[in-house]
Amino acid sequence: MMIRPTCQTLALALLGFAVCSQASGSLATLTQSVQISSIEASSETIWGSFRHTASNLIDGDLSTKWFGGATEAGQGSLFINLNDTHDIGSLRLTTTDGPASRIPKFVDVYRFDLTSGSWVLLERISTHSQGPNTAKTYALKATSTSNRFKLVIYVDGSDRPELAEVRLCSIDGCDVSTAPLARPDPVELLMPTSVIASSYTHWGQYNHNPNNVFDGDLSSKWFAGKNDTSPWLQFSFAESVLAQSFTMTSADDRPRRDPHSWTIYGSQNGFTWKALGSGQLSQFANRLTSQTLTFSNTDAFVHYRLALTARDPSERVQVSEVKLCGTSHCSQYTPKFTDESKALWFDRPGSSIRDAILLGNGPVGNMIYSNVVDERITFNLDSIWSGSPYPDSAYKSLDVQTVENLKEDVLSQSWTANATVNQQLIGRRVTRYLPASNLRIQQDLKGRISDYARVFDIDTATAETVYRINGRPYAQKHFVSMADNLSVTRISSQGDDAVTRKISMSTPNQLNSHTVEVSNGVGIIKLQSGTHASNVSGINLPGNVLQYTIETRVYVPDRVSMTASGNTLVIGETDDILIVSAIASNYVGPNDTSADANQRVATIFANADEQQLLGLGQYEALLARHTDAYSRYYNRQQIDFEGNVSVAEPIDVRLSKYPTRNDNDLLAYYVDYGRYLLIASAANGSLPPNLQGRWNNLMVPPWQSDYHFNVNLPMNYWLANQANLSDLNDGLFAYMRSLVPNGERTAKASYKVNKGWVAHHHSDAWGYTGIGSGISYGMWTGGALVMMPHVMEDYRFTGDTQKLAQNYAMLKGAADFFDAFLIDSQRIKPLSISASSHTHWNQFNHRPANVADGLSTTKWFAGAGDNTQSLYIEIPTAATVQSMTMITAEDQPGRDPKTIYIDQYNDTEQRWDRLDTVQVPTKARSSAFEHTFAKPWRGGRLRFTFATVDANARVQLSELALCRTPTCNLEDSELISPISSSPEQGPHRKSAIQAGPTMDTQLLHQLYQDLIESAIALGVDQDKLDHWRAIKSKLPAVAKISPSRGDIQEWYLDFAPADSKHRHISHLWGAAPGNTIDLDDSEIVDAIKKTLDTRGDISTGWGSAHRAMIWARLGDADRAISILEVLVSDELSYPNLFVNVADQAQIEGTFGITAVVLELLLQSERGELTVLPSLPAKLPNGSISGMRAHGGFEVDIAWTNGQLTQLEIKSLRGNTLNLRYGQHSTTLATDVGSTYRFDAQLNAI
To answer: What is the pTM of this model?
Structure first.
């Protein structure tokens, strides 16, 4: 079970003043704290289950701490990143109960100067007087403005610093008032920022932690830990709140563990407690039932502690739910939504990318948190990244000898290969996708806030927050216009209860210009900014190269005052306000920042003005244009699984209950939501969605929020074609084409390949194509390979030859690289070939290089008068020669070699040393002579001198191959990827790099097949088709069954994986999403199933989605749906339906879920359009319309009780339709634009 987010509303107080810590997902417990986006330390202590990390300093939990690492005696440093630029006036430190030697004695406070890009010391604070277990605020001599601060903490002697909490605060200080808040009415249900306990029980999959008492899930509970004789629960809030009762729900078993007696305490600081009331609970009538207890209290506190005893003294206490309330009764308003389009709604504000409502129009993304008193909207733009275009030095360079030696080392399983890569090739991480700015809306809401809800309407791609002030309705509406590229917010109320507001904007990036003015009654806030520098691949990339501008215009009624005060617009009392924003950057492409961001923003507003869309009364017009443009994408497909669960429950509650009830509508909503997210992050020619789509509020997002090629970016687009959104592929293709120049630089520098392009594991807006920062994932040469299948898949669905032609050169370039890069499994590639002479006349050029071109129709023919008749071949020094093959020329047997003298140059002695003398028997024309050497020898500079059958003839031969294998049968050799990895895992802990990973092989088969098909479709390069077919025929089998395990081999050689439960299942790419594995081969299918069984069904979000996709492709619907049941639950889904990846929210898993469901309903990859190929029993009834299939068909399907009831197919290209449903099949010639209807036996009707 996943706990609900702890950064939540405090229905009365939190709606106005809560400040979320994005690092931990909880709230700062002090009212004047500023928002900390992340905190890092120079060192940390981690051992076993103890993780004393810097993030503990902002989790609001006094039982956790930061403890400096062993490498730093006497001091430690903390680096604090804020989401906004703030005026900091004080610092609050909370110490632990640890040794006095770990309490800070001095703290040096630094701010980061955005202009100079350096740290500036503000002052040294003496903290000698602070004792253990205390919280103390230190005022700075002067306020300081920045978004980054550093604390250098000094302790006595050689000990290390230790702290429980750290806060940076405004000029008003960090102290919390002890007086109750002046509010007209008490709040009912109180929303804590954190819940901790004296102890809790956690073993295996059971995690009975204290957060469970406030998650709304009766299947979870808090269970006190072993030997806890004084158990308690502690609830902490964003500010002092008044509590007068609590409701408790019994756990699911063991009545003797129910609480018997209780005592509740209040505290302002978490250390000093005041008893407020006590009593005994009645015995619970049944399991999972509730009772409410009241206590007399008139004081407000920040912390409440509930001490309990068990009904049976020999047992530990357990409870399912505990709710604190501000009155003598606990009830909660629940909006009664009935429209499934509003299924994504929340009863509390958001705090992070896990629960914010996400709006977008492709390039622009907004995160809506809906804190109505102090709202913050995070703006994102697809092109806002740190760093700048990459110089040549970003791409590590090797000489030819080193590259070829590296290939040989990999093939020979030498650890030297890993060392070479680590020392000479490995780069660093790419740049970061950054937030652009935050729009802040402060509202002076006087009175009781109630009936709060925020909702996303998927039918219109709009967000709305509704609430009441003293019973009067208020609303905030938001959208990012698909039509006009404007972010729009409208705040309104009904009646005369007007509200004053302050509106401001800030940026966490480098601020170049910030203006606020009121002109002709319109408030205008304009920021001009640049992104930070970045250190990538061992080089410093300059910052402030990427420039962007964001301008916000505010419209109010004519009678309302609006003034500029510093960086803020101050707006008088009004019940209606319209906020319109535009953002643009100077980014044109990876190597081009020549655009004018100011002009781009001006053009956006000018276009809107020309359409008469700007002004308070134009909200409806803006909305209509937006919904019309959005609907052109979204309305292409409809899906209904005929569920019966009401949408009256908030989305997090539905997620928690999904595995145990039939909520098919939620699964259908997930399909629609995946389509929405792709529209919102990929429309309007934007850069592709990254790991977090288009949304990020952190300066240091997980994994840079970059592009990962091995699975994440491809999975983002798995759904596009079937979901009738093929035109959204265009942004992906444009981005991939923009990588080609850098990919060519990488190919030349790192691999000495002078044609084609290559990419590796990850990239960014600057188009990095070099090797990544870690050997297990960075040294993977399949980045271009894995993206190229999208090109031909788009064509198979759409038949768009213009788009195919636009991408053909990119496709061909990827193949050109591997033409040169692939290595023969037997034959050693020469570094150079020369000869004592050769014959060249007219069109005949019998040069020495012909002996290594693989063609029996060419030859080397020594020149006239050549008495030496020698070939000089240099091979990598790391190569080991065990055998050779010579192929005779097509004519003149007298010119065949009779004897071959093989010498190697001795660099030390500067002489040729004889290695072997080989006698060649008489051979037929163009036939092979194989020879195994008695003793293997290492590579270097070799000389082959020939004596011919006819002593007077000059020597000629067609081929001469040296092989690293005991035999040298070139007919049996294969072409394999020489330096690569199976994404993110190796067969050995020491060696991630291997030759011929199975995924590479499958991708290479797909690449050459797609290239051949596209050349035929376009009528180009017909002379190259045989060459590409020949290469494809020399590739290894797409799937090999391990003789030792019976599963699919992950590598060319039969290694057992180092991690049999690894999250990646890369070697099954050819089963899905690819189509290179023959799924009609039962032995292969059994091996695939064994592989999946071994890896396990549940992994990361994307790992689970990939597994489900393969089960769907295999026709095992129930296995696929069982994985979806976990994905579509709070075990792996966050409240806004992003999916969990290592406790981080990412987008590709959501896209993967959509793709899996569509795959269950329609498949067309194997030459047939198969209807309901994997229909799960859990989805007995339903319909879907607007699906697309290979061949250019649009398909509508309906089914009842698991049986097809309606099938309608429209032919968009006039291709032949090969149709299958169950045991029925038919073939039909179609006409362009015609629609065909079939019954369950596929009879035309």
So the answer is: 0.79
